[in-house]
Each structure stands twice: as C-alpha cells, then as structure tokens.
Write a structure and sequence with these properties.
With 212 residues, the protein is α/β, with parallel strands linked by helices. The chain has a single domain (2-208), classed as Ribonuclease Z/Hydroxyacylglutathione hydrolase-like (Metallo-beta-lactamase, Chain A), CATH 3.60.15. Helix content is 24%, strand content 29%. It contains seven helices and 14 strands. It has helices at 34-41, 56-59, 62-69, 91-95, 164-174, 193-199, 201-208, and strands spanning 2-7, 12-19, 24-28, 45-50, 73-75, 105-106, 112-115, 118-124, 133-137, 142-146, 149-150, 153-154, 182-185, 191-192. The strands form three sheets. A six-stranded mixed β-sheet has the order 1-2-3-4-5-6, covered by helices on one side. A six-stranded mixed β-sheet has the order 7-8-9-10-13-14. It is globular. The N and C termini lie far apart (33 Å). 47% of the residues are buried. Residues 11-187 form the Metallo-beta-lactamase domain. InterPro entries: MBL_Glyoxalase_II, Metallo-B-lactamas, RibonucZ/Hydroxyglut_hydro. It comes from Persephonella hydrogeniphila. GO terms for molecular function: hydrolase activity; metal ion binding. Its cofactor is Zn(2+).
Length: 212
C-alpha cells in the first residue's frame, strides 16, 4: 500500500510505502507538516526515512521525525550542500523546516532499499539537483520520482546545481522503464511512464531531438 500526503504551502507529496503483512513502512520526502506525518507513521513500524533530493520542501521534517522514530535517514551525498540551504530568503520559515541531519547512510545508483516485500532500486537522476534520485520497485511497478518527473512536466533546472543537459539524460533513463509503471512524483498527481512518454511535452520534445 502507498499513501501520499500532500503537505505544506508548496503542496509537496510525502510518500509512505507500507507492507500490510508486516506493518513495516518507509517514508519518502517528509517536507512539511511534521506532526501530521508522524501521526500517520505511528500506525506502522517505520524502517527508513528517504529523500529524493536535498531541497527543504522535501527534507524539512527529517530532523523532526528522526527525534521521534530514531530510524536511518538515507539520501544521495551529492545533495548534502542543499539540506539546510534556504535557497530563497525565508524559505525554511515558510515551510516550518527543522535542521536536517546528515544521512546515516548515503545511497547511489544501483543500491536497493528493502523491507518486507518491497525492494526499491536507486536510480540517479541529476538535473533538478546534482543528487536527485528516484526509487523504482520493479515487482510492484512503481517509481517515486521526486522533482525529476511530474505529470505533464519536469523539475526546474534553474536552481543551485540544476542542469538541463543532465535532466535530459535522466529523463531518458526513466523512459526506459515499462509503460505500466506508476509514477509517484514529488508534487502533483500520479501518472504512468507510458502516458508521459506519449504526452509530456518535455519528453516528446527531447524525443524529437533524437536523444532516444
């Protein structure tokens, strides 16, 4: 089971993956409304806190949740420079961000995060940030894309560490996943890889450039 909590003024998606057989769970991108997220997580045996990238609207409640649940926090080390970076004046205050701790473990391309019947493979997808990653579960056919791929759009590349050329390569990686793969993005509605391949103007535009 997957629950998506849309939190904070930027309507960021905090994603909870749950094994209903064991009541184990992990949470991805706890960005705002920490008490609300914690109340939901208290129903389960939390195993991990994950981040797709280091922007505060995705890691702003990691410190808060670590104090309550004392479980490992995992992210890509290339985004460590962002985890307490305001980016915009007053951004941390706007979303009620807590100081984010360094990860207990850094994860990279090809690593897997496993619990219960879930096995999430790490796919490095730089472009929005240098350390952006996605979490892909081949068996259960879903991918958590953070701010790399949205329904009908992609993450912006004009913030610190953003790179459009890297984003194009990352989108190519994601488009190699099966059409039926559910896409759970960091903002907005869910979609499918096949739908984005056919209708996302950024994807079709890159396709016309002959990148795949």
């Amino acid at each position: 089971m997957i629950k998506v909590l849309t939190v904070g003024p930027l309507e960021e998606n905090t994603i909870i993956v749950i094994d209903e057989d064991t009541s184990e769970a992990l949470v991805v991108d706890p960005g705002a409304e920490g008490k609300r997220i914690a109340e939901e997580l208290e129903k389960y045996n939390l195993r991990y806190i994950l981040a797709t990238h280091g922007h505060l609207d995705h890691v702003g409640q990691v410190g808060f949740l670590k104090e309550i649940f004392d479980v490992p926090f995992l992210m890509n080390e290339k985004d460590l420079f962002l985890i307490n970076n305001d980016i915009f004046p007053g951004f941390a205050q706007m979303i009620g961000a807590y100081k984010c701790p360094d990860p207990d473990k850094v994860i990279k391309e090809g690593d897997t995060v496993s619990f219960g019947r879930f096995s999430l493979k790490v796919i490095e997808t730089p472009g929005h940030t240098p350390g952006s990653i996605c979490f892909y579960d081949e068996k259960n056919q879903f991918v958590i894309t953070g701010d790399t791929l949205f329904k009908g759009s992609i993450g912006r590349t004009d913030l610190p560490g953003g790179d459009m050329k890297q984003m194009e390569k990352s989108l190519k990686k994601l488009m190699e996943l099966p059409d039926d793969t559910d896409v759970i993005p960091g903002h907005g509605d869910t979609t499918k890889i096949g739908t984005e391949r056919k209708t996302n103007p950024y994807i079709t535009g890159i396709h016309r450039l002959g990148l795949w």
